[in-house]
Amino acid sequence: MLDGYEAVIGLEVHAELLTASKIFCGCSARFGAPPNTNVCPVCLGMPGVLPVLNRRVVEFAIRAGLATGCTIAEHSRFARKNYFYPDLSKGYQISMYEQPLCVGGGLDVVVEGVARRIGLTRIHMEEDTGKNIHDAHAAGSLVDFNRGGVPLLEIVSEPDMRSPAEAGAYLRALRSILQYLEICDGNMEEGSFRCDANCSVRRIGDRTLGTKVEIKNMNSFRNVERAVDFELARQVQALQQGEALHQETRLWDPDRSETRSMRSKESAHDYRYFPEPDLRPLVVDAAWVDAVRAALPELPPARRQRFEAAHGLSAYDADVLTQRKDVADYFEAMVAAGAGAKDAANWITTELLRIVREQKLDDALVIREWPIAPTRLAALARLVEGGTINRNTAKGLLPRLLGTDVDPAALVAAEGLAQVSDRDALDRAVRDVLARHPEQVEQFRSGKEKVLGFLVGQVMKTTGGKANPQVVQQLLRAALSS
Amino acid sequence: MALTLDEVRQVAALARLRLEPDEETRLTADLDHILDAFTRLAALDTTGVEPTAHVDPESAPLRDDAVTNPEAPDALFEGAPARSGRLFRVPRIIE
Ligand SMILES: [Zn+2]
Q1: ipTM score here?
Q2: Residues of B numbered 20-49 whose beta carbons fall under 8 angstroms of chain A's beta carbons: which are they?
Q3: Most distant CA pair in chain A: distance in Å?
Q4: How far apart are CA A79 and CA B54, in angstroms?
Q5: CA A215 to chain centre
Q6: What average pLDDT does range A259-274 have in this prediction?
Q7: How many of the other CB atoms lie within 10 Å of CB of B50?
């Protein structure tokens, strides 16, 4: 694909943690508050104040580390990353450098049926920056520090990915795990799950890495894949034309579908890291790690395997249903309420998730409000499985059940929607239809099988859509061959 | 050590310090002197000595995840050199 070259991709993810308060002060970490309301002398970087670490941030980082197979360091340490930018109140960001909390580990991804393990370099804690607001009318830029000091996990992968699709699969798997752990809502559009990509290319067979380019400004999985794809092709083309690549940061422009160089003077980063003197080293003992491990939920890979083994689902259905914990929970609630596993999977993937998307009910970590309770959707599915109504009637009823607590069986009974399986009644309808369409009957008898569909449709019409289509087909075939 | 004038200029640029030419020369000599002292320290054999991350060996104290700060009072913004309501105003940033 890359003309004798191989792609080398590593991803750096910043995940905003769902804590109540900020990482080093007691300000609210809530998103969307009026500008500069959730700030204090600590997160505004005023002199003489001291940071105090939020225990839950450490717990969330341990959770993420354990779920991805990292080793949790007993001793870790915060560092100052020094740079000047208006969204950084202190002139440095408190981060981790030489001694991160989590090291090693990895994630398994499957792309086009091929399983690969993507290694993790490290996971560490740090504080988020403020937000610059560019107001065309204002004489200058404006800064809001509500987000400054909100806890982040930086999750750094090894340069193990070999295609844009693998990068996308890694990101989806990682986000899914963070959502299961309930530590990050994973919203790329709102910036609570952000990704930078390091890309280079090398001749297939080469062991040394090519010149690395960092890509920023991608706010969806699709854009990450597109940006990486573009960048790899650009690098191969440059090398083929004998141009030298240089290490730089490039911005993805989704409108023009290209990356372009950030002509930043400080492209050679020199952050002059040093140990943060305001914070003592962090000690995480084995008892703490064990307690966090004991409370971990069942994670997507394990749940996927269980869905395949215990419920007989296809790998595809199991994957779709387990990407989000709330969807997987919904499926299990439907099965517990008596729906068949395959039917439940169909209802969820073809109908329910479409409604959720259309009504935009999935804007956060969880689908806060299901349009219909799992027990009610299970009841609807059972009416079809039991032959009381046909699938089309059920689909037609679904919109009327949304947002209500109406029992589907009661609705079917009240409106006389139960399907007609009474052979005598149907037989009369069949004979009537055949009598009215002699031309189609002739066509069928001369071998035009397709006409049967038309005739079934006519019988359904005369029965108000309530006939059992399988029975109608049987009766039609019997009548036509007699 | 032999710190160069260019290295001093680069560090000054990173720290956003505007130095006059005579300050650059003086600081090059001063910093060189300081680095020399570290070179002498570096000659000590510290094999088997635990690195000192902090003078206090106790683990960092941790706080509970609770919102304890009230909404920021107006007084917090009074010292800002320039602002627009509650927003801090800075020279235009070109990204
Ligand atoms: Zn604060």
Answers
A1: 0.89
A2: none
A3: 98
A4: 12
A5: 21
A6: 74
A7: 7
